[in-house]
Amino acid sequence: MIKPDGMSGNYTNRIKNVILESGFRIVKETIVQLDEDTAASFYAEHSAKSFFSSLIKYIASGPVLVMVLEKENAVADWRDLIGPTDAHKAKVTHPHRCSSY
Fold first, then answer.
1. What is the pLDDT at residue 98?
2. CA–CA dist 51, 1 (Å, integer)
3. How many CB atoms lie within 10 A of CB 30?
4. Given this model, what pLDDT does residue 27 score?
5. d(Cα 2, Cα 87) in Å, to the nearest integer?
6. Its family (predicted)?
7. CATH 3.20.20.370 fits 4-100, yes or no
8. What residue spans define the domains of the chain?
9. Cβ contacts of 20 within 8 Å, gap of 6 or more
10. The predicted structure's pLDDT at residue 29
């Protein structure tokens, strides 16, 4: 998923190119605008965490690009590609990864 900042910052093509250059195939993609209820359901595993409310507001703040990707060893390779889930850490430890844009 390319989140609202990535969509509004015109990083979509750059991110997709990194995905493709890393050997993934984009099977399907669609742009959606999540409402807060749908976002809360998607991120339910974080519901007890202090950042949950701000996460939901952020995800519902603009369109997101949802993609279905395919590749052998996709999960492990995806985790390596995106680096840490904390974007600030990713910018330092994985500056050329998707989550750093």
1. 60
2. 19
3. 9
4. 98
5. 13
6. Belongs to the NDK family.
7. no
8. 4-100
9. 26
10. 98
Rg over CA atoms, the chain:
14
What is the pLDDT at residue 85?
A: 74
CB 35 within 8 A of CB 60: yes
The residue whose two tokens read 């990194």 is: 18
- CA dist 98 and 95 (Å) reads 9
Amino acid at residue number 86: D
* 96 close to 38: Cβ distance less than 8 angstroms: no
**Continuous H helices in 1-101:** 4-8, 12-21, 36-42, 52-59, 74-82, 87-93
Tokens coding 55: 């996460």
Length of the chain: 101
Token pair in block for residue 57: 């507001």
* Whether 64 contacts 30, CB under 8 Å: no
H/E run at residue 56: helix 52-59
Asked if 7 contacts 64 with a C-beta cutoff of 8 angstroms, the reply is: yes
User: What phi-psi label fits residue 73: left (phi over 0), alpha (psi between -120 and 50 degrees) or beta?
Assistant: left
